[in-house]
Amino acid sequence: MDRILYLLILIGLGIFFIYKMFNPPTSYKYNLKTIIFLSDNNMLTKTDTLGFHIFTVKGKRKFILPSEFDLWKEIHLFENGIILKKNKKEMKLFFYEMYAIKPVLVNSFFVKGKYFAYIIELRNSRKVILKSNEINNLDLFMEKLFSLLSEEKGNGCYN
Q1: Which residues contact 55 (CB under 8 A, 6 or more apart)?
Q2: What's the CA gap between 57 and 145, in Å, rounded?
Q3: For 5-23, how does the pLDDT look when each residue is reduced to its tens digit (9 = 90+)?
Q4: Which of 48, 60, 100, 146 holds its CA 20 to 30 A away from the CA of 93?
Q5: What is the DSSP letter of 48?
Q6: For position 154, what pLDDT does the model report?
Q7: pLDDT tens profile 94-144
Q8: Is 149 helix (H, G, I), strand (E, B) or coil?
Q9: Rounded CA gap, 8 and 6, in Å?
Q10: Which pLDDT belongs to residue 40?
């Protein structure tokens, strides 16, 4: 009798997992943009000054372990670049160093489109990943960034 009960529970769980794998519920609908910086662009001058401060977003967690390399605590948007902060380290990214900003929609086993992320590719082939589940208001930050680098200014190419 116990074997039949265990077998029924395992079959039920198997059917549930297979159903959720092929028919996951969908999450929010995101309007994600891509920007590719043009290499022959004269608008992105090489500068070592960040300019005036425009916007700041903070991470969802207060304390970040030293082993978490891609988890950022604060992101500051300036006129000529971005400052990424974690624990006691900070990284300055100027717009002339960037090659592209690409969106990624992250799926989990049970939810399709659970959250989104942006990958900032630099010209020296390094990558920085910003995830919406780790940073509050990342979508608002990226809208401010894309409005700063609008096509009217000629700073980039959108998709």
Answers
A1: 76, 77, 140, 141, 144
A2: 12
A3: 999 999 999 999 888 878 7
A4: 60
A5: S
A6: 47
A7: 888 888 889 988 877 777 778 888 999 988 888 988 888 888 888 888 888
A8: coil
A9: 5
A10: 57
Q: How many angstroms separate the CA atoms of 151 and 115, rounded?
A: 27
Residue 117, amino acid: A
**Token representation of residue 93:** 């990214």
Letter for the amino acid at 18?
I
Residue 158 in tokens: 């959108």
DSSP codes of every residue in 57-89:
EEBS-S---TT-TT--SEEEEESSEEEEEETTE
Contact 68, 59 (CB under 8 A): no
CA atoms within 13 A on the CB side of 46: 3
CA 69 to CA 74: how far, in whole Å?
14
CA 153, chain centre distance (Å): 24
Q: In what order do the strands lie in the sheet with 98-106?
A: 127-131, 115-122, 98-106, 35-36, 157-158
